[in-house]
Amino acid sequence: MKQITSIQNPFIKSLVQLQEKAKIRKQTGTFLIEGKREIELAIKGGYEIATLLFYPELVTELELPIYTTTNTEKIEISKDVFQKLAYRDTTEGVLAIAKTKSLQLSDLNLSKNPLILIAEAPEKPGNIGALLRTADAANIDAVIIANPKSDMYNPNIVRSSVGCLFTRQIATATSEEAITFLQENNIAIYAATLQDSTSYHTQNYTTPTAMVVGTEATGLSEIWRKESKQNIIIPMQGEIDSMNVSVAAAILLFEAKRQRGF
Asked: What pLDDT is stored for residue 42 in this prediction?
């Protein structure tokens, strides 16, 4: 089995670049995953593991088959190399190089009565990760990121989603493409916005539904407000007029789930 002990190794240097640069991830079609649970969820979600790197003092060779797919290369790494690549100390000694997916709207396989979350132009990777955790918690069909500002395989998204990047179907598209897709599939659009809106709990979400949320700073673009079946609002009862986007998404999605009998 191959071993790498130096952080100056060219392959290790290339992995640091893979972590730091979206351009490299796009060129190679690969990205890094840290942690046992995250790698297991990626495999369960249909991701191919090209290479598994492990630090033998934290994970044994006997455990490795759990974190591999067909033809996965296994590389033993030193403590220095592991610490160079790992973002956190609790990743349990394993990192994986996985192959990306296309994330096209046409790849989505929806149920007969889908519930979808749309997030327009979320900027912070932590917010995207939280949205993906919310989507997993509500067990919805898919998440569409409209007008994405971040590469979905950004390590901060992978990490903050705690593996939920791999548990839901995800697509990226422009807002126009997403709206066309929803309309072609007869999925009603409910846009969370302050303008021309009604309280979210007054609507019926038991038929094919897409909940659309924007950023706290700018909200949703006009095209979503124009094309929605109904603009909806979560009534604020304190001093502020907005909340974190993942919190708002959770309220809307779980109202839809409540109406559908969970």
From this structure: 98
